[in-house]
Design a protein that fits this description.
The protein has about 90 residues and is an all-alpha fold. The protein has one domain (about 1-85). The protein has two helices and no strands. The longest helix has about 70 residues, at about 1-70. The protein is rod-shaped, with a radius of gyration of 32 Å.
Length: about 90
């Protein structure tokens, strides 16, 4: 009986490898695509955060300039800066 098991095992190994390749290949491609989409989404979010941070930094600079500039009329300066602010 042991002699019959060896050929069966010898034939089953390539069959299992082929089936594994047929099943595993699409799963690997699917996972790779998911990771690519996640990377794109993350890059897009990072760009949005960077733009938002830049706008906040510009606003802080304006506020610092208003707070430290004692030579101009504060209300006039605020209105001028409001008019210059880009529409978002």
């Amino acid at each position: 009986m042991d002699a019959n098991i060896i050929p069966i095992l010898a034939l089953s190994i390539p069959v299992i490898a082929i089936i594994g390749g047929v099943v595993v290949q699409p799963l690997i491609k699917l996972k790779q695509r998911q990771l690519e989409l996640q990377a794109e989404h993350t890059a897009e979010k990072a760009a949005q955060y960077a733009a938002h941070t830049e706008r906040l930094e510009q606003r802080v600079r304006v506020l610092e300039r208003i707070a430290t500039d004692r030579g101009t009329d504060l209300a006039h300066e605020i209105e001028r800066l409001r008019d210059e602010r880009p529409q978002v």
